[in-house]
Amino acid sequence: MTGTREKEKGAAAPSSRWRGWLLEGLSEQSARHPGPHATPDEERAGHRWWRVMCLTGVDYFSTLGYQPGIAALAAGLLSPLATLVLIALTLCGALPVYRRVAHESPHGEGSIAMLERLLPWWSGKIFVLVLLGFAATDFMITITLSSADAAAHVVENPFAPHWMGSGNEWITLVLVGALGAVFLKGFREAIGIAVPLVASYLLLNLVVLGASAWEIFTHPVRIRDWTDAMTAEHSSPWAMVGVSLLVFPKLALGMSGFETGVAVMPQVKGDPTDTYEEPKGRVRDTRKLLTTAALIMSCFLLMSSLATTVLIPQADFESGGPANGRALAYLAHEHLGEAFGTVYDVSTITILWFAGASALAGLLNLVPRYLPRYGMAPEWTRAVRPLVLVFMATAVLITLWFNADVDDQSGAYATGVLVLMVSAAFASTVAVHRRGHRRATVGFGVITAVFVYTLVANVIERPDGIKIAAIFILAILVTSFGSRVRRAFELRAAEVSLDETATRFVDEAARQGPLQLIANEPREHSTRAYRAKEWDQREHTPIAGGGPVLFIEVFVRDSSDFTADITVRGDEKHGVRRLRVSGPTVPNAIAAVLLKLRDRTGQVPHAYFSWTEGNPVSHLIRFLVFGDGEVAPVTREVLRRAEPEPGRRPRVHVG
């Protein structure tokens, strides 16, 4: 028998160690995971804005790896003109919007938090869940698309082994797996890695574009051939402008880094005089970050679009062509030799892979920021490693679905980016309108309309983004509400406190024995009504000893909230003493107050309820949605789960 127990104990030990490792960090503070978007400790000073810009840049600047090729496929010979439209929207639209977001939400919550404050009750929660679905689309496709483009650079390199020739899919899966392995182990000091990575990548791109410019200037016939081809294809300059305006939504990936830019705001070092309420230095430097990144990216986008359109035959951009998904790498090999081209490939592969790391860190920060607060996440989502496994499994499915094709994923990526930009623009419009800035309201309203047009055009052209986002939204809604139902019977009170009057009532009543409380509807009653209620309870649920009673009344503030601090306020009116409470639900608030009173008096209190008329199923639904329903049995269940020892559990009487 002893040997059998030892074997069972030995078999359980690895399982216990595995569970402990997997759920390490399972706490309310687990959103402070190590990574690019982690919330720094209060004692940490943060980083200079240009260093944090490099962290944003691994996502933003890495799009140079595939953006020129996507632009060439979308706009053809008009790619530089369409890119000019995109740059105008970036500098005159996205940049002002996110500078406003940085001002309104300086602690990394982003535009989602701004919109959350606009909508009350359940509508606000559901809206946030939908936006989280689009944000998940943005970040997840960042991981898979960046890895797929990195795989394309590996396969197309002339020094790559021949057996890698058709290995885009499995190479992408290896990169995704490596990314997950890094986060399972722990991801630290991301900024220290991002700075040299971004600096070297931009420098190599500058060399490639400089060599391309030299090639164009020494062979001006290339410019003439390009302009002649545009003239032959389009009847007039106005026609070219019109086509560019129509196709530029397909180039929306060039604006993909702004949401990351505001998400990393907690990493920006502010002024010594900054406070949590007014971090003016952090806001100022984050705006510098956003502006500098937008200007750098705009210059590189325009130069790369011109170089690739003029120097690369259009046929080479097509699927399977040597420039597909790697236009600048094509120029690096073509004009600077295979050795330099290989160095450029390594740099591009690294930054694309690291862009996936930034996106994954964003997801690991975003999900714990909202869902646990809503009670809409299982307990294990507070730990990093289980979430990493879920996201990596999702990335594998997306990679297999799109066959690791960059072009096929670009529509889904752009949809996620544009939905977040529309939400940011709309939130900024509302914010300036509330402050009475009429001109700014009109300006942000126009920007919102342009982003809406861009989004609609992209969705019509490439509906894959909506399909992917719908899957994420459905998954988030189902798991969130399932978790909310499962956790509905938790205590859900962060802290319970009594005001001076309530404390006096409780202490005086406790001197005559265990507290006896009558649960009552939270509205003003007459003296007769209170006396009738007390007489009814004494008749149907005999109150021990006929001692004094306190009435407890709970006002539901916002039933969509999950937890809240509870303050018990006492008053004496209509000849009775009342304890009045405000909380998200009635039974959970009563249970929390009963436990607080037990701990204060050292005696188990008794609570008296009346049965509620009606269908029990409808009452359960009312409890889940409106926070009331059949109060007595739910209060009993909440107490049972909160206090496992029956002898210490407050008593619930129903008559």
UniProtKB/TrEMBL annotation:
Membrane spanning stretches: 70-98, 119-143, 163-184, 191-217, 237-258, 289-312, 351-371, 383-404, 410-433, 440-460, 466-483
Keywords: Membrane, Transmembrane, Transmembrane helix
The keyword DNA-binding belongs to this UniProt entry's keyword annotation: no
UniProt-recorded name of the protein: Amino acid transporter
Organism: Streptomyces asoensis
